[in-house]
Design goal:
Strand content of chain C: under 5%
Number of domains of chain C: 1
Order of helices and strands of chain C: HHHHHHHHHH
CATH topology of the largest domain in chain A: Rossmann fold
Strand content of chain A: 5-15%
Strand order of the largest sheet of chain A: 1-2-6-8
CATH architecture of chain C: Up-down Bundle
CATH class of chain C: Mainly Alpha
CATH topology of chain C: Fumarate Reductase Cytochrome B subunit
Largest sheet of chain C: none
Oligomer: heterotrimer
Low-confidence stretches of chain A: 1-6, 89-93
Radius of gyration of chain C: 21 Å
CATH class of the largest domain in chain A: Alpha Beta
Structural class of chain A: alpha/beta
Helix content of chain C: over 70%
CATH superfamily of chain C: Transmembrane di-heme cytochromes, Chain C
Number of helices of chain C: 10
Chains: A alpha/beta, B alpha+beta, C mainly alpha
Amino acid sequence: MSKKRTDERPTIGQVLDENGVGRRRFLKYCAGITALMAMPPGATTAFAQQLRAAKRPTVIYMPFQECTGCLESLTRSFAPSLESLIFDTVSLDYNHTLQAAAGHAAEEARYEAMEAAHGEYILIVDGSIPTKINGAYGTSAGHTFVDQLYEAAEGAAAIVAVGVCAAYGGVGAAYPNPTGAVGVADLITDKPVINVPGCPPIPEVMTGTLVSFLATGVPELDIHGRPKAFFGNTIHDRCYRRRFYDRGLFAEAFDDEGAKNGWCLYKLGCRGPTTYNACATIKWNGGTSWPIEAGHGCIGCSEPNFWDQGGFYEPVTSKLFRDTGQVAAAGAAGVALGVASAVAANSRRKKLAAEDQETSS
Amino acid sequence: MSDSIPVTVKSETRTSSIGGGVFAIAHELLRHLENLLETGETATIDVKSLPMAPDEFHEIRKMLGQGEIDLTLELDGPTRIQETAYGGVWWIQHKAPDGRILAEYIEIARFPDFLSAQPDHITEAVRHLRNRLQGAA
Amino acid sequence: MTLLEFSRGPMLHFALIVFVLGVLWRLVAVSLLGWRKSKTKWRNSTADAVKGGAIATGNRSWPHPEFLDRTAFGEAVGYGYHIGLFAVLLLYAPHVVFWKNLFGVNVPFWPTLPSGLMSVISIVTIFVMFIATVRRYMHKPLRRISNFDDWFTLFILYVLMLSGVMLVFGLGGRYEWVLATHIISFNALLIWFPFGKLMHAFYIFPSRFITGYKHEKKGASS
């Protein structure tokens, strides 16, 4: 556990040298990162130099109202690799799931790390933050998640909201949102918040975002606070089945000829057109495959409120209202108004005809 | 002298035809090569980012063929640097220990940047050697 | 709530309510207004009149040969636009799934056209509509009698059709905003429908039928 003051923190380059990581080994690692972010391969050398010159950051990980899926995804890619050297992952061990210590000892470890690196650490938040009944729906060590977030955010250089729950509220915030779950950016407005949504996010996207933050600071973000390098294109625009969409060849069921031929899954509820993520290019499990390649439509898991956009097997334009007789009532009202109008018109006509007769007779 | 070089260039590429998506990449390569000749400017083409059908990928590899250099380094997984049959065109592939491809690109240069010594490494070497010589003196 | 969620949710619901209420109001009122007292003798039976009405519906869908020269342009534009419109609405796969979801029906067999052909049809349809718009403006009498109803209906249709084509070709920026525009303009069309000339969709065939029916009853040719 590091008790160094912030200005004594080593650079990443120094840590790598101390641990005997050769320059070319590190350059290869950077080539992987720049490829992930669709930067030109020629940019690798400059990226590597920036990263080597960056101070090795403390990373503090705060889990809130979450299912631990994002942590599972994140730790798959954190070990074994250079990330464990790049990030002072002492604080990453501060996690109820990962650490051996518990109780006050664990809390102490976290407070010490936060103090030692005050103003410099990266705060990774996982899970939504419940806000109803003063945040009492989520507590740990006697404090609400809301308070813990504000406290941890205060000394952070930047906050990375990992997973759609931390970014936008996720499943906790799905209708009817009984706990008042919100995302980090809904509470923290005075620090840069980088959203890395997904359910879970692709591991390489999470680590790529963290590493690029080290090298070049807060990346360019889209309107939902997501790094454009990973969330700049829709699934639809990068899908290898797009040629079938363009030709109008759709699978109608999950086991029909179209599905077996790998046709477009639009009719089976694919949300590719309105979902921004890197699944089509970076894929999952180290590039093995991804949902559409496996034959299931995109569920849009990196979008805000994705749980409330209609059924996963309904089209991306499906209706989002429930009619409980209003249209039928409108129909009945229309008929009634029609009858009333006709009766009124007819009686007026009779009256006019009678007046005419009177005047002419 | 050249008779004693025990390396055979195995390449039938210049006779194989170019078609489809390979065409576009071949054109880009030609442009970069001409630029390299004229101005010495290097370039890279990220092969992993190109939306290609698997057979197109093999077509490109076949078209480019194999030159004299085929180098594999062990750096946290294998890194393979191959000179293609076209002088100045290098194929570089970085793999992780589990075999998945981290990065794969074509580099148009006299010499792949990955193999050259990094400037700060040289700076350190100068410092180190200087200290050593001063210590010995 | 995002714009897209709003367009597919409360706005669509409201639009359907206004549409159903308005259309039924007008149709019921018109049908109950009654018929003018006939001052001639009915010469033919009701059965004959019904047949006459059916024939007239077909006949009046095409001009008499004497008028063909003068009306050919209008007929071509009208038919061209409407055929294209129905093809796009009913034979394009993404629209088919939208209707199935909206009405909660699962029609087992609903054929669709290849999307490439659909793109061509939709662009031709917009072009035909543009020709009609230009004519409406350039033809002085037509321009004089054109009112807010005509221009506003055209405006909604342009937004609807152009946003649709933009979606297919990936134009106009973020897909979800163009899609929201497309759905909002459809909602606007539904809301505006009962108030203007779009009601011709419901009136046109009954109106021709009744004209033929009445003529046949009187023994007049139609």
